[in-house]
Automatic annotation (TrEMBL):
Full protein name: Pentapeptide repeat-containing protein
Pfam families the record matches: Pentapeptide
Record InterPro entries: 5peptide_repeat, Pentapeptide-BTB/POZ_domain
Length: 62
């Protein structure tokens, strides 16, 4: 449970966050490239300037 966690600028490359509760977490500036976010709860999460590239899903957030 990472609800409300302060993960600003964290290096979360290739992290297994599948099903994680990231509700209201601060992920601004975090590197989420290749992270598994399937079924993760990102409601209210701050993703400003986060870097996310998922080759599997073809998604890119910059």
């Amino acid at each position: 449970n990472l609800r409300g966690a302060d993960l600003r600028g964290a290096d979360l490359r290739e992290a297994n966050l599948r099903g994680a509760n990231l509700n209201w977490a601060n992920l601004s500036g975090a590197n989420l490239s290749g992270a598994d976010l399937r079924e993760a709860n990102l409601r209210g999460a701050n993703l400003r300037e986060a870097n996310y590239i998922s080759p599997r899903l073809g998604l890119c957030l910059k």
